Fold these 3 entries.
Entry 1:
Amino acid sequence: MIIQKQSIPFIIHNTSFIIILLGVLTIQSCQQDTNTNYAQDSLDQYLEDYESPKFKWGMLDMSGKHQIQPIYDDLMDALNPYFIPAMQNGKWGFIDKDGKTKIAHQFKLVQQFQEGIAWVTDFENHWYSLDINGVKSDSISILNAQPFSEGLSGVRTVEGWKFVNSKHEVIIPGPFESVSAFANNLSICKQRGRYGVIDIEGKTILPFQYRSIKNTRNGYLVKNENGYQYLDSQGQPSLQSIFEKALPFKGDKTAIKENGNWFLIDDRGKRVGLPDCKTVVYLNEERWKFKTDKGWFIIDENGQIQNDDPFESTYKYNEGILPFAIDKLWGYADLNCNVIIKPQYPLAWSYHKGYSRIIKDRLMQVMDREGNINENIKHIELRDFHNGIARFQYFPFLEKHLNN
């Protein structure tokens, strides 16, 4: 075959193009192989270093029956009974309340589903959003994420925090140093060392000029260089005074400190003086506790002390019941500090949906509001009930001991 001279450059040019194209395809193939190998190496290294706990986690019902067998390295609470985060052999997935696998165990980290979406990460620390059908999004370049709330999620990037929607579109770019989940279309954010409030469209509601901001009834409690101040929802002072210390309004009254003394105050500024005390803590249910050298005293909305004898320690009111301790033993009292269950337990927790957890004979058990203890539930590790089931850690030697 005779090749004309003028065709040689064309052949050389196209030959060069083909060589370059093959080179690019080879590089891409190598990169894909490298990425695949790196991902597998990351997983292999993780699993090689991972030590599965000897004592596994399961779920039990109120009768003490094992609703979900204790075969999992870890479990989260059954906030959604159809999608319970569960770890097995070092990998997280999701199961339902009967222990059936809903989304395969394949992730390094997972969050609870919220608004139908859960954030997850793979073993290379890539982040994805996951829907309830197990469909995983494309990866998003972030360092951390908050659960979705009111359609948006706070995500942390190398630049800072910003808000994205379910499609990973940046809705509020920020960047912020910290953010709170949206509630009532508002979020408390931090920028340049100061806090402010934005709405769900990113509009500034309170300027970024405060040392701290807390939500309070119908407005905010802010802290600046001069002290604490209450603002209404428009950012205007609802009380003219600035206080040394203050607690958020949760009801009709709250506690403030001025001129070295603590008071209860209503939204019109009317004060009720409290006894000399070191600190005041809100306990829910329009009750507060204040501490003296003798211990903790409980006061109602009128400033009246409810307990004659001081408490050594308390938790907060929940479902109208207060866990309290005297002489290192825990019991329970009502809103007026009448003792419902006398102090007798070395540890006790707040009531949750009608039941509390207590330590009795060195084991965790469940007790109702009348003090009746469920003798079918005795465990070393037990969590609160959600949707009728609770997490527990299974220790075989304990079951043998209880059956003897």
Note: Confidence is low (pLDDT under 50) at residues 1-13, 17-22.
Entry 2:
Amino acid sequence: MQTGRIIFADILRIIAIIAVITLHSTVDLFRSYGSVNIDWWWLGNILNCSSKWAVPIFVMLSGMLLLDPSKSFSFKSFLNKRLPKILIPLFFWTIFYELYIVVLINKLNIDLPQLIKNIYTGEVHFHLWFLYMIIGLYLFTPIFRYFIKTHDEFEIQFFLCIWFIVNGIVNSLDTFFDIQNGFYLNLFVGFSGYYVLGYYLNTKLYNRKHRYIAIATLIFSVATSAILIFFLFTNNFASKVDIVIDNISLFTIINTICIFIIVKSIDWESLLKNNTSILNIIKSLSLSSYGIYLIHIVIIYLLSSNIFIKIFKVGINYKLVHPLVGVPLTVILTVILSYFSVQILKKIKFANNIVP
């Protein structure tokens, strides 16, 4: 049995990166209501609703590992270790995707001043927003650690409850009705709740009963959100759909908590006991998940690019035969190709810094 690894955390990273790729493989289908077959759209809708918990899970895992007051912590060492793993990929992949989209796809010239401005303002390729968000959480880590260390469980629960109410209910209602409440609740807005929630939920033990409740809740939440989204699209409220599927919406928060509890409640150590080969695969995929996140978009683009179609006579995306075929095939190929791309880059000097 391997030591030094938290198996359920590795499992969560793997299913989260698969969910991210599923989300990005179906986003065009999901946004095509009215222009694709309704059964195709429903599949995209359900997959979208079933995958939005992916990035919040990554944040919760960071909080789980970094906010534990029982572990020694040096902020200087923390920044020296963590920030390069964010900043180097951020600059490289921003420039890479800019070159790919602007030069190769749109046949335009790079506007260097605009590129620099975009890096500063965060107007980079859509999936790189995660790096900006995690930098903010890293900088606040000593404050979160102090809060957890000096406050009892009730006070941590109070913070999480207010965060849940503000993000899951108040902000959703404000957005739907186009109003703005007058209370200054900005301190409770954002991913900080997931960060603390990851630590808090990890302090609890979960059994089979908790797992079954979480599974039932997850199914109900996904079904309800999918039906609500259908209602919004069919009643000309398409602009309000993000209320349901935002990373910090009511349903996403509920789904994220359920996924965490379901995976943590399983005794992976006993289930995978003495199965070294599977444990090695899990470890390798988990360690590669960050690199896969950074590179997977270009793989998705390439699978449906003109170059790929010219070589293989077919593009791989949700349109291939039927989404029931196209989506799984896109996800599987993207995971495999992204993983091996990361492994190759990790073996190249200096290139390993862009997929840490």
Note: The mean pLDDT is 91.
Entry 3:
Amino acid sequence: MALKLTVTWFAPFQRSRSSCFLSLINSAISSTIGPGWALPVSINPAFQKATAPLQDMRKNKVFTDFISKAGRLEFPLSEVFDVRVSDHAIRRLETLTSKPFFITASLNYPHDPNVVPSPYYEMFSPKDMEFPGNYGLRETRFEKDWSRTIVAGVGEAGLRELLRIYYSSVRLMDAQVGRILDSLDRTGTTEDTIVVFTTDHGDMAGGHGMFWKSTQAFYEDVVRVPLIISYPRRIKPGTNRMAVSSADLMPTILELTGTKYPNGVEGLSLAPNLLGGKVTAILDNMHSASALLRTQRTRARSYRECREAI
């Protein structure tokens, strides 16, 4: 029996006279209200029912909409933002001359809004979603965080649908990265091109009974990010568990390209390590009046009301 889905459109947010906006497809991004997408979404009726209690839990409906309006994006794949970004990057790569170039391809997935088009939406099933091993490990101090409230509100069935969309989004993003790398191969520039794959934050994705990133907790799920650096001409394949920071990327890229940078910049160049040497890095992040100190072997989390070391 075919599952009947309900199509819902994201309503554009009201624009404020004091805000600056960037139009993108049918979206409006407000510096004071937050991002919003006017997108057609088919929502599983069971998921709609599961998210109904969330509608009255927050006065700010922006956050509620990003959870309740989750499902299959009714857009042709060619019109999806990440595909269009990749198309632009590929066209640019294939028209380059021998001059040095720098291209940033900022893909949105996996990220809210929690929508993904066919055929990716159908690649995973909610019933096959497994919760992470730390799903049941919860701390009382974070029970009122929105990331925890989401899971408490939608229940395990709702979380499985959100995870289904999350993993489908990762699959779509992965395909776009592959397309861009293929274009480097076609143009013969792979060997001499530095490729950096990273992001700005992780996602709880069920960890500690949470979803999304809206928590004060310094859990690895949301703090750790992928970092892959490729430079075939000079960097040998390998892995490294050294604790590093996104602030290290600027001095690293500049040193790899032979470009000088000022003394005292935040971050450490990882070039010596990538090229076979050694560098010692300490990751020190501040977030919501709490702090995280991370080294290769230890991690300490400091919250406003107490301190704990792990």
Note: The helical segments are 45-51, 61-68, 81-93, 146-187, 220-223, 249-256, 271-274.
